[in-house]
C-alpha cells in the first residue's frame, strides 16, 4: 500500500473480498492493493467481451488469489479453459473450476459441468447435475434413493 499505514495481510484480503472500494479504510487514499474482488471480476468481463482473454484471465486469477472459492470467478475461468479463451482448451482444468463454482451455487457452472460430463459420455453425472440445475434443493442422487425407501414404509 502506498500510504504509510500497515494493515494485516488477512485484513487486506477480507477488505478485498467484501468491499466495493479500493481506498485505505484509514486515510481513504486509493490503492491498487485493495482492489475488491468484484471490481476484478467486472474488469475481467470487460476484457473477455472485448476478446482480450489473457487480460481477462489475469484479472480473474488475481480474484481467485484473493478469494479462491469465489463462484463467479471460478465459473468464468472454467469457461475460458472449456472454450479455449486465452488458453488452450483443457476440459480437466475447466472441470476443476466448474466444480468449485458449483459448490458455491453458481448455476451456470453447474449447467456447464453437466454439459462436460455429457460430452464425455458420463450421463449419470450429467443427469444428476441437470436435476440439480433445475431444482431449488440440490441433493446427492443417493439421498433420493433413501427418500424413496422411506416413502414406501
Residues in helices, as a percent range:
55-70%
Which residues sit in consecutive blocks of at least 5 with pLDDT less than 50? 136-153
The 3D shape can be described as globular
Whole-angstrom Rg: 19 Å
Roughly how many Å apart are the termini?
Answer: 64 Å
Number of distinct beta strands? 0
Overall pLDDT metric: 77
Order of helices and strands: HHHHHHHH
Give the biggest sheet.
none
Which class best fits the helix and strand makeup? Answer: mainly alpha
What percent strand? under 5%
**Contiguous helical run count:** 8
Plain-language structure description:
The chain has helices spanning 9-18, 37-49, 53-66, 71-83, 91-103, 107-120, 123-134, 141-152. The chain is an all-alpha fold and 153 residues long. The longest helix has 14 residues, at 53-66. It is globular, with a radius of gyration of 19 Å. The chain starts with 8 loop residues before the first helix and ends with a helix.
Could you name the key traits of this structure?
single chain, 153 residues, mainly alpha, 8 helices, 66% helix, 0% strand, disordered C terminus
Q: Helices and strands in order, then pairings?
A:
Elements: H1 9-18, H2 37-49, H3 53-66, H4 71-83, H5 91-103, H6 107-120, H7 123-134, H8 141-152
Helix pairs in contact: 2-3, 3-4, 4-5, 4-6, 5-6, 6-7
Quick structural gist:
This protein has 153 residues and is mainly α.
